[in-house]
Specification:
Length: about 325
């Protein structure tokens, strides 16, 4: 099989699992605070994350090279994950995805001040068009603007910021630092709030909470495998398949039928995002912030593409160096 087709199929599988993961979050959100869902998803992810973080063979300490950027990214990641989990629990999945699909557009804009990128007229038009799509989904003044919509918008902004900061400092920081700080901060912050919102879950709901952690980890590993197999231009667009899963799961589990505005807005946002992805694929320079960044809400517990690839590469290199010649 052609590697690019294989990578795209692996990515489709990853995003199908991510969508199922989001369905479980939505189901749990009917009975539990997002604080509790995030806390347990991070808690159950620790063993899986630690097995890979311990393989980080790069020398150094846990003190960041760029402490302020790490702090900013950590805060953004915590807010990103919490707001996304809340939005999943109160809004139709298709609406949440449509808003979160604006992340590549926001990454393009943030690349200007953070990375010193130059964004030309065509990409500005794509960004503007995509944001019009977001407004169509939100329908300000025509539909009830809920806290869930605000949370989804905040999640998209914070997710884009966290992604672009990773693009800026990823080569300088140890992978274990990049992944551990958001995970630990989520665990501490959500753990501090947890006593005020805690509801004792029965065994089957604990199983669902474990599935949230497992789903995010498995999907993240598949996405890394996809990027290792195919070019980013073949993998990145596969995230938009989630809108189909959202429509399917919404009808199947929640009796949520996507309305016309969500459908039209989604098409516009996806078209704008695809334009930016394919424009970046034609560029010869190495600064490609959208293609090289994962556009999924994060709690710090799921594997990150660039840091994980670096850990695996360093681990394989150190292992080969220990083999007898």
């Amino acid at each position: 099989m052609n590697p690019n087709i294989k990578g795209a199929l692996i990515a489709l599988m990853a995003f199908a699992i991510y969508s199922a993961h989001d369905v479980v979050i939505k189901i749990l959100g009917g009975d539990y605070s997002p604080v509790q869902v995030v806390f347990f998803s991070v808690l159950f992810s620790f063993p899986m994350a630690m097995m890979h973080l311990l393989r980080d063979a790069t020398h150094g300490t846990l003190i960041p090279v760029h402490p302020w950027w790490i702090a900013a990214r950590t805060i953004a990641a915590v807010v990103n994950g919490f707001c996304a989990f809340y939005a999943y629990s109160v809004l139709p999945l298709a609406q949440v995805y449509a808003i979160l699909f604006a992340m590549p557009l926001l990454i393009t804009v943030l690349a200007i001040p953070v990375l010193g990128e130059t964004v030309r007229l065509r990409r500005w038009i794509a960004v503007g068009t995509g944001l019009v799509g977001v407004l169509i989904v939100l329908r300000p003044g025509q539909a009830e603007f809920e806290l869930g919509h605000i949370s989804a918008v905040i999640s998209a902004i914070c997710g884009a910021f966290a992604s672009i900061v990773l693009r800026k400092i990823g080569r300088d920081e140890r992978s274990v630092v990049i992944m551990l700080y958001p995970m630990m901060t989520n665990f501490i912050v959500m753990g501090a709030i947890l006593p005020f919102v805690y509801v004792a879950p029965p065994l089957d709901d604990l199983g669902k909470l474990f599935l949230v952690a497992l789903g995010a980890w498995v999907a993240g590993r598949l996405l890394i495998a996809a990027y290792n197999t195919a070019g980013p231009v073949f993998v990145a667009p596969m995230q938009y398949s989630q809108i189909l899963w959202a429509a399917f799961y919404g009808v199947l589990f929640f009796d949520e039928w996507p309305d016309l505005a969500t459908g039209i807005g989604s098409v516009i946002i996806i078209a704008s995002g695809l334009f930016i992805v394919f424009r970046e694929s034609l560029r010869s320079d190495s600064e490609k912030p959208v293609l090289r960044t994962r556009s999924r809400p994060e709690t710090g517990a799921a594997p990150q593409i660039a840091p994980m690839k670096r850990i695996e590469k360093a681990w394989l290199k150190s292992r080969k160096s220990r083999l007898p010649k």
